[in-house]
C-alpha cells in the first residue's frame, strides 16, 4: 500500500513537471521580441494586444507601490486598535474582535467622546497625514512611475451605499499631486459593500454578501459609475486604470472563478457606459487558472492582475515562471499587472522578481509603501518586513481614547516622523533612487 501511494505521488510529480515544462514552452501570446513598440496614441493608458501603452502610444511598464493602510487601515499594520493591542500574527483575533475598517467606524461611534463631526475630522486628519505630498515626490525620485490607491466603499459613501461627493475632493487633490510628480494611478476597489471575500482587508469580515445581493451589487455598480463619470475625460495621463475588485473569492477561503468574472462583466459595462477609454483591470485571485478569458465577454482595453506572495520553498524566479506558465496555458491575450507582491526582507527574492518581470514586460507594484511595526505579520523565517518604510506608531484605542488623544496619534503618522527605512534600499539600488532614511 505504501509503495502504491509513493508511486502515485511520483507519477503526480512527473506529470506536474511535464505540464510545467510544456506550459513554459507554449507560445506566449505576445513574446517580448515581437512586442509592438508603438500603438495609435489615444491620450489614455491603454491595454491592447497583450501590451500596455501610454497616452502617447508607447510601451508602458508600470512600476510602483501600493499605498495600503491609508484609506483603509488593515489589522496587521493599523495605527488604531479596538482593545488592548499587542504585536500580532496574521489571523489572530483581538480583544474586541479582529480589527476591520467597519468595526473601527463602529468603535468610534460607540466612543462617548466622539460625534459624527469629530469622527469625520479625525478620519480626514489621518488621511491628510499618513501620505503627503512629500511621499509622492519621494516615490517619483525613487524611479517609480505608479501608485495603487486602495479604497473601500466606506471611504466614498455613507455606510457603503449613498455616494459622498465631498469625499472625492481629497482624491481630486491626490490625482493632482500625482500629475505633478509624473505618477500614474490605479484606483483599486479594495472592499465592496457586503465584502467580495470576507477578508479583513475588505473593510468588513462579518459578511460575504456581495454576489447575488441586488442591493449590494447595485451599490458597487453605482460607486464605479460615479467614479467613471467623475473622471471621464479628466486626468487622462494620470489615471492608468480601474481595478474592479481586490482579491475576490467565490466563497470564503476559496479562490475566485466565474462568479467574479460574471460580476466583473457587469462592472465593465457600467464603467464603459460612462467612460469608453479608461483601462480596466480584472483580478484573477490568486492564480491565472482562477480566471475566465474576457474575450467571451467581448472585453477590450482590459488588463489581468495577479498577486504573488511566495510562501513556498521555491525560489521567486520559479514562482514567477509558474504564473507565466499558467497564463500561457489559459491563453489570455491580455497584458499582466502584478498589482501586489512582496519578498519581505529577502533581497535575493526581490532581485529575481524584478529580473523575471523585466523579461516578461509585466507591470508590478509591491505591497507596500509603509507599514507599522506594532501590527504587521511576523515570522522569523520569512515575513518580517512589509513596507519600504516602517512606522513606530503605538496604536490608539478607538473605543476609549478622546478626540485629543486620537488626533495626537494620527497627526504624527507622516513618513518623516516615527519611521525608519526597511526595504527602501532594495528599490533604491534597483531603480536608481537616492538611498536615504529621511523624507524631505
Q: Which H/E pattern describes the elements?
A: HEEEEHHHEHEEHEHEHEEHEHEEEEHEH
Number of domain units: 1
What is the SS-derived class?
A: alpha/beta
- The order of strands across the largest sheet is 3-5-8-9-10-11-12-13
Quaternary structure of the protein: single chain
Largest sheet entry: 8 strands, parallel, barrel
Query: What's the number of extended β-strand segments?
Result: 17
Q: How would you describe what is shown here?
A:
The protein is α/β, with parallel strands linked by helices. It has a single domain, classed as Glycosidases (TIM Barrel). Helices cover 35% and strands 16% of the residues. It is built from twelve helices and 17 strands. It has an eight-stranded parallel beta barrel with strand order 3-5-8-9-10-11-12-13, surrounded by four helices. A three-stranded mixed beta sheet has the order 14-15-17, with no helix packed on it. Strands 1-2 form a two-stranded antiparallel sheet. It starts with a helix and ends in a 9-residue tail after the last helix.
Amino acid at each position: 500500500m505504501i509503495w502504491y501511494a509513493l508511486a502515485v505521488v511520483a507519477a503526480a510529480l512527473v506529470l506536474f513537471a511535464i505540464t510545467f515544462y510544456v506550459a513554459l514552452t507554449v507560445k506566449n501570446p505576445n513574446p517580448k521580441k515581437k512586442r509592438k513598440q508603438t500603438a495609435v496614441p489615444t491620450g489614455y493608458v491603454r491595454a491592447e494586444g497583450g501590451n500596455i501603452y501610454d497616452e502617447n502610444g508607447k510601451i508602458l511598464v508600470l512600476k510602483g507601490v501600493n499605498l495600503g493602510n491609508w484609506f483603509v487601515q488593515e489589522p496587521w499594520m493599523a495605527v488604531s486598535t479596538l482593545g488592548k493591542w499587542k504585536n500580532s500574527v496574521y489571523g489572530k483575533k483581538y480583544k474586541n474582535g479582529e480589527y476591520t475598517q467597519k468595526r473601527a467606524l463602529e468603535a468610534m461611534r460607540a466612543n462617548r467622546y466622539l460625534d459624527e463631526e469629530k469622527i469625520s475630522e479625525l478620519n480626514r486628519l489621518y488621511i491628510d497625514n499618513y501620505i503627503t505630498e512629500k511621499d509622492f515626490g519621494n516615490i517619483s525620485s525613487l524611479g517609480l512611475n505608479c501608485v495603487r490607491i486602495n479604497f473601500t466603499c466606506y471611504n466614498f459613501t455613507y455606510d457603503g451605499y449613498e455616494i459622498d461627493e465631498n469625499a472625492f475632493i481629497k482624491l481630486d487633490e491626490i490625482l493632482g499631486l500625482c500629475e505633478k510628480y509624473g505618477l500614474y494611478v490605479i484606483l483599486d476597489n479594495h472592499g465592496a459593500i457586503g465584502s467580495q471575500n470576507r477578508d479583513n482587508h475588505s473593510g468588513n469580515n462579518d459578511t460575504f454578501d456581495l454576489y447575488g445581493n441586488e442591493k449590494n451589487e447595485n451599490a458597487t455598480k453605482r460607486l464605479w459609475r460615479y467614479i467613471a463619470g467623475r473622471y471621464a475625460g479628466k486626468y487622462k495621463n494620470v489615471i492608468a486604470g480601474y481595478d474592479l475588485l481586490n482579491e475576490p473569492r467565490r466563497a470564503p477561503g476559496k479562490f475566485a472563478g466565474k462568479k467574479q468574472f460574471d460580476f466583473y462583466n457587469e462592472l465593465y459595462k457600467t464603467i464603459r457606459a460612462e467612460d469608453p477609454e479608461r483601462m480596466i483591470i480584472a483580478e484573477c485571485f490568486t492564480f491565472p487558472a482562477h480566471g475566465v478569458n474576457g474575450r467571451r465577454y467581448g472585453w477590450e482595453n482590459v488588463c489581468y492582475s495577479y498577486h504573488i506572495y511566495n510562501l513556498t520553498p521555491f525560489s521567486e524566479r520559479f514562482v514567477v515562471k509558474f504564473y507565466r506558465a499558467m497564463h500561457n496555458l489559459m491563453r489570455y491575450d491580455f497584458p499582466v499587472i502584478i498589482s501586489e507582491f512582496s519578498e519581505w526582507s529577502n533581497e535575493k527574492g526581490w532581485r529575481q522578481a524584478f529580473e523575471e518581470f523585466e523579461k516578461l514586460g509585466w507591470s508590478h507594484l509591491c505591497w507596500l509603501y509603509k507599514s507599522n511595526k506594532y501590527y504587521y505579520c511576523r515570522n522569523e523565517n520569512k515575513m518580517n518586513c512589509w513596507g519600504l518604510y516602517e512606522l513606530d506608531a503605538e496604536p490608539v484605542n478607538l473605543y476609549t481614547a478622546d478626540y485629543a488623544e486620537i488626533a495626537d496619534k494620527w497627526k504624527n503618522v507622516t513618513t518623516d516622523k516615527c519611521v525608519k527605512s526597511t526595504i527602501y534600499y532594495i528599490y533604491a539600488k534597483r531603480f536608481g533612487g537616492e538611498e536615504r532614511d529621511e523624507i524631505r
